[in-house]
Every structure is written in structure tokens, then in C-alpha cells.
């Protein structure tokens, strides 16, 4: 039950990454904003999240992760309410940033509590796989749920849907998340940062840069280039999102048995193939042209996520779980935010949408290969 509760925390954080994507066109028209305002609805959340993850992870190590889990749920819920009732784009962006604060409190703390509760490395790897799968399930649910909510109730519903979930989870977290005795570290126990920790976090960042950037590009391709509805676009993203949810626990079991390098290597190779498949998209292509991209990206990230998170957590002592989680999630979210902004800029400034996709195919494919080399040099 505790693991399930912690998985709901990561689910909420990840849900608000993708559930908003399919609502962007209606937010743009509903609040009479432009492309910049549309982009800041996504980036405001991710930048705040990325900028505070490290601080919040270390804060949890110091004051206890139970407190940061509860605070994160409370802040996230309040910010979701403001997003849902905001009368203009400026307040939506500000509330999205506040959502990012709540998510930054919540995300590293849920992973740190798992690290506290699962002291055996293999059991921890399996638990991290389930946790990562829950986050990936949110990525699956986001576009579909967002499409249903936007079509039925309008864009405000994608934020207000968080409120009943938090109303249910918050009292459960108060009762179930254990109080952890905070260890007093000796001033002469110096933290050693090795190549494995650095390598795992660099790969985490590159994974989100290409993964989230490509996901945004695919969403815009389906909705704005092919003129699909929000619901249809959400359903057509399932080939990339379903493997993310299904393969997280599988990757955790593989990592528990063989270590992180094997699933990371296969995941990065498949991600590179998926990115290079964007080169096959032409100006007159339809949805079928991006299915190989979606499958390569989905299976690749599904194998990669749990393995790379476990590699980063295992590289530091257990009493630094909040710090390790904060650094890893900072790497993923900060570089992921850069990926969203960078991919959006490339598409906006290219001669055509398909020309932009071809540029991103080379960028993404090369970065996956670079990450594969880093993996073999640093991760066991």
C-alpha cells in the first residue's frame, strides 16, 4: 500500500507533463495567447520543477521525507486549483510554476522513501521499476485523459482533475508514510561522487531532452500539422506511451538480475533508431509515418528509465537518497525542459514542419548514441 501511495505521487507529477500538451491549442485560443504563452504553460512547470529538485531532495534528507511528501501534495493541489480558475495566461503560467514547486517537493521524496524501505538492492531495483512504471503510466494516461477532458469540459478540467486525487491521497499519506529518524552525519564522512553517478545523471538528462522533446514534436505534428482532435491525437500517441508504462517493472526486474547497463544499452539503441525514423516523414505523410518513431521511443525509454534511475540512486550511500534522487530528477527535468524549448524552437524556425523534424531526427539520434557511449564508459 505504501508503494502504491508513492506511485500516485510520481503519477501526479508526470501526468501534468503530458495532460497539458493536448490542451495547448484550446488554451491558446481560450486565453487569446500566442505561441510563447503556449510554450510557457509547459516550460513554467518544468523549469520550476527542475530548478528546485536538488534543493527539495536535500531538504527531505534533512527534515524527513514524510514532511516533504505532505507539503508537496498540498502545494500541488492548491496550484492546480489556481490553474483551473485562472482568467488569463499570466496567472496560468504563475500557477504552473507553483505546481512545479509542489512537484519538486514530491518527486525526490517518493523515491527516497522507497530507498529507505527497500534496503536490498535487487528488491529496490524492482520497486524503482514499479515506481518508474507508474510515472510512465501517467504519460500514457495524460494525452488520452486530456483529450477526453478537453473535448467534454474544456481545458480547465485538465488541472481540476488533480483535486479529487489529492483529496483522497493526502490523508492516506499522513497515516502511511513513515517517520524516518534523521541520521546525524559525521563531518569527516566526505561524499564521494564517482563516474557511475555522473554518467547515470548525464544519460538521464539526455534521455529526457530527446524523449520529451520528441513527444512534444509528435503531439504538434498530430494536432497542428495533421489537424487531429485532442482526443484522437492522444489515442495516436499510445504506441509511444504504452511501452513506457508496461516496461518499467520489466526493466526493474532486468536491472535487479543483470545490473543497469544491459537495459540501458538496449533502450538507448532503440531510442536512436526511433529518432532516425523521423527522417522518413514527408510533407504529405500521414499518421503511419510516425508509428516507427513512437515504437522505438516508447520501448527505448521504457527499458531505460528504471535502469538509469536505479544506477543513480545506487551510486550514493542510502542516507543520501534524497540528494541522489534530487540530482537525478534535476538532470531529467532541467534538460527535459531544455529539450521541449529546443525542439519547439527548431520546429518554429525551420523552413517547414517536416524539415524541422528531419533536423531533430539527426539531433536526437546522435544524442542517443552519445548517451550509449557514456553508459558503457561509466555504468556497471
Automatic annotation (TrEMBL):
<dbReference type="InterPro" id="IPR020846">
    <property type="entry name" value="MFS_dom"/>
</dbReference>
<feature type="domain" description="Major facilitator superfamily (MFS) profile">
    <location>
        <begin position="2"/>
        <end position="380"/>
    </location>
</feature>
<keyword id="KW-0813">Transport</keyword>
<dbReference type="Pfam" id="PF07690">
    <property type="entry name" value="MFS_1"/>
</dbReference>
<dbReference type="InterPro" id="IPR011701">
    <property type="entry name" value="MFS"/>
</dbReference>
<protein>
    <submittedName>
        <fullName>MFS transporter</fullName>
    </submittedName>
</protein>
<feature type="transmembrane region" description="Helical">
    <location>
        <begin position="127"/>
        <end position="149"/>
    </location>
</feature>
<keyword id="KW-0472">Membrane</keyword>
<feature type="transmembrane region" description="Helical">
    <location>
        <begin position="262"/>
        <end position="281"/>
    </location>
</feature>
<keyword id="KW-0812">Transmembrane</keyword>
<feature type="transmembrane region" description="Helical">
    <location>
        <begin position="69"/>
        <end position="87"/>
    </location>
</feature>
<feature type="transmembrane region" description="Helical">
    <location>
        <begin position="359"/>
        <end position="379"/>
    </location>
</feature>
<keyword id="KW-1133">Transmembrane helix</keyword>
<dbReference type="GO" id="GO:0005886">
    <property type="term" value="C:plasma membrane"/>
</dbReference>
<feature type="transmembrane region" description="Helical">
    <location>
        <begin position="155"/>
        <end position="174"/>
    </location>
</feature>
<feature type="transmembrane region" description="Helical">
    <location>
        <begin position="287"/>
        <end position="313"/>
    </location>
</feature>
<feature type="transmembrane region" description="Helical">
    <location>
        <begin position="93"/>
        <end position="115"/>
    </location>
</feature>
<dbReference type="GO" id="GO:0022857">
    <property type="term" value="F:transmembrane transporter activity"/>
</dbReference>
<feature type="transmembrane region" description="Helical">
    <location>
        <begin position="41"/>
        <end position="60"/>
    </location>
</feature>
<feature type="transmembrane region" description="Helical">
    <location>
        <begin position="334"/>
        <end position="353"/>
    </location>
</feature>
<dbReference type="InterPro" id="IPR036259">
    <property type="entry name" value="MFS_trans_sf"/>
</dbReference>
<feature type="transmembrane region" description="Helical">
    <location>
        <begin position="195"/>
        <end position="218"/>
    </location>
</feature>
<feature type="transmembrane region" description="Helical">
    <location>
        <begin position="230"/>
        <end position="250"/>
    </location>
</feature>
Amino acid at each position: 500500500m505504501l508503494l502504491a501511495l508513492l506511485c500516485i505521487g510520481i503519477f501526479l507529477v508526470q501526468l501534468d507533463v503530458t495532460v497539458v500538451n493536448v490542451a495547448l491549442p484550446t488554451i491558446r485560443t481560450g486565453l487569446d495567447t500566442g505561441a510563447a504563452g503556449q510554450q510557457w504553460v509547459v516550460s513554467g512547470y518544468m523549469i520550476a520543477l527542475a530548478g528546485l529538485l536538488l534543493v527539495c531532495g536535500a531538504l527531505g534528507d534533512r527534515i524527513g521525507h514524510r514532511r516533504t511528501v505532505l507539503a508537496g501534495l498540498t502545494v500541488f493541489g492548491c496550484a492546480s486549483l489556481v490553474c483551473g480558475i485562472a482568467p488569463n495566461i499570466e496567472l496560468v503560467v504563475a500557477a504552473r510554476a507553483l505546481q512545479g514547486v509542489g512537484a519538486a517537493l514530491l518527486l525526490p521524496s517518493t523515491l527516497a522513501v522507497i530507498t529507505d524501505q527497500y534496503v536490498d538492492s535487487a528488491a529496490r531495483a524492482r520497486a524503482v521499476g514499479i515506481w518508474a512504471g507508474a510515472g510512465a503510466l501517467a504519460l500514457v494516461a495524460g494525452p488520452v485523459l486530456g483529450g477526453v477532458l478537453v473535448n467534454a469540459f474544456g481545458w480547465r478540467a485538465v488541472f481540476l482533475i488533480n483535486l479529487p486525487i489529492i483529496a483522497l491521497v493526502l490523508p492516506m499519506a499522513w497515516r502511511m508514510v513513515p517517520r524516518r529518524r534523521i541520521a546525524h552525519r559525521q563531518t569527516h564522512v566526505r561524499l564521494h561522487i564517482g563516474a557511475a553517478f555522473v554518467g547515470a545523471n548525464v544519460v538521464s538528462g539526455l534521455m529526457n531532452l530527446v524523449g520529451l522533446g520528441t513527444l512534444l514534436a509528435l503531439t504538434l505534428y498530430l494536432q497542428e500539422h495533421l489537424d487531429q482532435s485532442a482526443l484522437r491525437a492522444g489515442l495516436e500517441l499510445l504506441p509511444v506511451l504504452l511501452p513506457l508504462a508496461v516496461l518499467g517493472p520489466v526493466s526493474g526486474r532486468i536491472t535487479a538480475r543483470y545490473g543497469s547497463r544491459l537495459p540501458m544499452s538496449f533502450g538507448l539503441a532503440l531510442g536512436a533508431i526511433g529518432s532516425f525514423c523521423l527522417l522518413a516523414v514527408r510533407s504529405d505523410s500521414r499518421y503511419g509515418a510516425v508509428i516507427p518513431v513512437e515504437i522505438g521511443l516508447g520501448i527505448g525509454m521504457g527499458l531505460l528509465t528504471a535502469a538509469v534511475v536505479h544506477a543513480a540512486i545506487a551510486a550514493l550511500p542510502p542516507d543520501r537518497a534524497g540528494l541522489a534522487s534530487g540530482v537525478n530528477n534535476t538532470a531529467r527535468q532541467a534538460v527535459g525542459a531544455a529539450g521541449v524549448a529546443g525542439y519547439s524552437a527548431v520546429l518554429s524556425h525551420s523552413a517547414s514542419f517536416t524539415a524541422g523534424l528531419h533536423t531533430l531526427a539527426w539531433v536526437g539520434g546522435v544524442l542517443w548514441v552519445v548517451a550509449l557511449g557514456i553508459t558503457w564508459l561509466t555504468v556497471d
